[in-house]
């Protein structure tokens, strides 16, 4: 089932996700719904907060992006990033490896807004998958950027928090409009 994506101004986006102790059937259903929602919105990553659940859960699929390369290492050996797609990360932990690099980012919770964000080029990721099995990998490029963006969501951190002041200042009117529209819609939904 396709879910509604929570937009900037919805307080759930600022909530730190609770750890998932077991991938119960309702979590498996949520994962399937998150993939459907992400694909319908042409996203490459989606965090549980973005569909209204403050949980340590994110889904990623970068296969549709051809012009921004990714790297992957499994057990220290180079591997095809596509081999781990679609990717489910439950309770992920990310450790930066490379030096920060700048790159363009957008977010389904911020329609049509983009900014240059600095993040470490590579990261080590540990998590469990949708079957509750431990997974570990090192990634770089677009995949590393995407993982870091999503793991930020799981901790209530948004990409605008990592923009430099000039970029955020440029986007300020749009951000204020989006926040106001979201708050109005939430108020209306509550009646
Ligand atoms: Zn996002």
What does the main sheet amount to? Answer: 7 strands, antiparallel
Give the mean pLDDT.
97
Oligomer status:
single chain
Uncertain segments are none
Level of helix content?
Answer: 25-40%
Radius of gyration: 16 Å
- Molecules bound to protein: zinc ion
Q: Estimate the global geometry from the Cα principal axes.
A: globular
Q: Termini, distance in Å?
A: 25 Å
Give, in order, the helices and strands.
HEEEEEEEEEHH
Q: Work out the number of β strands.
A: 9
Continuous helix count: 3
Classification by helices and strands: alpha+beta
Q: What percentage of the residues does DSSP assign to strands (E)?
A: 25-35%
The main sheet orders its strands as 1-2-5-8-9-3-4
């Amino acid at each position: 089932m396709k879910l509604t994506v929570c937009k900037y101004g919805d307080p759930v986006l600022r909530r730190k996700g609770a750890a998932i102790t077991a991938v119960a059937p309702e979590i498996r259903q949520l994962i399937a719904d998150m993939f459907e929602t992400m694909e319908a919105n042409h996203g490459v990553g989606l965090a549980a907060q973005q569909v209204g659940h403050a949980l340590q859960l994110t889904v990623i699929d970068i296969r549709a992006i051809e012009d921004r390369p990714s790297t992957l290492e499994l057990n220290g050996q180079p591997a095809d990033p596509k081999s781990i797609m679609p990717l489910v990360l439950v309770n992920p932990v990310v450790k930066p490896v490379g030096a920060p690099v700048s790159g363009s980012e957008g977010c389904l919770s911020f329609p049509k807004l983009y900014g240059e964000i600095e993040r470490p080029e590579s990261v080590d990721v540990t998590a469990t998958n949708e079957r509750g099995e431990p997974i570990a990998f090192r990634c770089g490029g677009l995949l590393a950027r995407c993982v870091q963006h999503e793991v930020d969501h799981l901790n209530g951190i948004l990409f605008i928090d990592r923009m430099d002041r000039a970029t955020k200042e440029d986007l300020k009117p749009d951000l204020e409009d989006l926040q106001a529209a979201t708050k109005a819609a939430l108020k209306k939904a509550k009646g």
